[in-house]
Amino acid sequence: MTELDQLLHSDQDWIRVRAETALQIVNQRQTGQITSDEARELLEDLVRTDQLEAEADDMAMKTMLVNVVRGISLVV
Amino acid sequence: MNKLITIFALVALTGCAQMKSWVPSFSDTNQSAKIIDVRMSIDQLDCDKPHLAQVRQIKDNLRWFELYSQNAGFRNQDVLMLIKPMQSTVDDFYKRSLQDAQGSKGYCEIKKKLMASQANAAAEVILGRF
């Protein structure tokens, strides 16, 4: 939990949001609001969210690269 | 001369392969509209009501997006890869909603938050394409 506490105080918003969601899952499991099976699935979804955002970042960089090449081609 | 043609072909083919890997899919009005439909169906998800019909709506919107993108040209592999994690997230929700006892309200609320975050990230990049 110490590592989770560190993440909760991260300077980066996306890390803090992920940590808050992980904490919410842990808290809801501890208070019996969700089952252990549901908690496992939700934690897996957190990993999937990171995978999706990595893909999105990659696409955004490629789009930026195409825009730069297009801009240069107009100048040259 | 033959050597020159071979070298030119090699350069051209390797160049094309490289190009294919870094050129993203282009902007597509139908994909843009459908990803907002996905966001809308997630936004309207009410965890106090039965989940099944609502999750099916999200699942169907994503399936439409997938089928359309498969036929929209080879360059659309990037958007297909992009929505895959979201499809897994929604599929698990759908399977749980099919059971006699659907997922708990707490589960539904966190699921909604995660799906909204995924759909938002996907929509930003899909609508931001050149």
Walk me through this protein's architecture:
- The complex is a heterodimer of chains A (76) and B (130).
- Chain A is mostly helical.
- Chain A has one domain (2-75).
- Chain A is built from 3 helices and no strands.
- The N and C termini of chain A lie far apart (56 Å).
- Chain B is mainly α and 130 residues long.
- Chain B has a single domain (27-127), classed as Four Helix Bundle (Hemerythrin (Met), subunit A) (Up-down Bundle).
- Chain B is elongated, with a radius of gyration of 20 Å.
- The mean pLDDT of chain B is 89.
- Chain B is 78% helix and 0% strand.
- The interface between A and B is medium-sized, with 30 and 33 residues.
List keywords for this structure.
heterodimer; A: 76 residues; mainly alpha; 3 helices; B: 130 residues; Four Helix Bundle (Hemerythrin (Met), subunit A); 5 helices
Strand content of chain B: under 5%
User: What are the low-pLDDT stretches of chain B, counting only 5+ consecutive residues below 50?
Assistant: none
Q: How do the SSEs of chain A run, as a string of H and E?
A: HHH
Radius of gyration of CA atoms of chain B, rounded to a whole number: 20 Å
Please tell me the overall pLDDT of chain B: 89
Number of helices of chain A: 3
Summarize the structure.
With 76 residues, chain A is mostly helical. Chain A has helices at 2-8, 13-30, 36-75.
Itemize the secondary structure elements and their pairings.
The complex is a heterodimer of chains A (76) and B (130).
Chain A: H1 2-8, H2 13-30, H3 36-75
Helix pairs in contact in A: 1-2, 2-3
Chain B: H1 2-22, H2 29-43, H3 52-71, H4 77-98, H5 105-127
